[in-house]
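Q: Sequence in, structure out?
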Amino acid sequence: MSRLNASEFLGIEIFDREIFKSDIGFFSNLYTSTLVNDLFTQDSISFSVEKGTVRGLHFQSPPYSQSKLINVIQGAIVDFFVDLRPDSSSFLSYGSVILNQSEPKILYIPRGFAHGFITLHSNTIVSYKLDNEYNPLEENTIIWNDPVIGIKWPIMNQYFHSPKDLSGKSLSEIIENNLHI
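A: Exactly. Output:
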């Protein structure tokens, strides 16, 4: 599939996140209700020890789909999203955004996308704000290096994956098994 710029996906939004610095540190809002209209129900974080940690590509089947606000609290990532909305002009295309603590941005991903990222620094912390509870029975994982999607991941000396992510299915398997995307 093809790689598109974030602006070419209907619903993907990137917001600047203000940092208020002082002599004792800084303060920043990760979310205000003026960003998006979603009613968020869950806050989560992930911590990745190693540079080159790949998480995803995850999505939950409808009606358990989730929209997400993504913030990097510490470190840096390349965040990837894959459009799984069959009626979308960008269906099965992917996009990416670099998120880091020094140039803070907030990424909004609406429902209907698979999501994953790779860490560019060790000890990276990522914050997620979700509009639907996690449902392990409806979670799906597309294998990170799916040849149909064809994501161009940054080249690393070594990649780190969870066992769950390594057992992800190809997009073809997901479609063949009639999993709702």
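The chain has one domain: 6-21+38-173.
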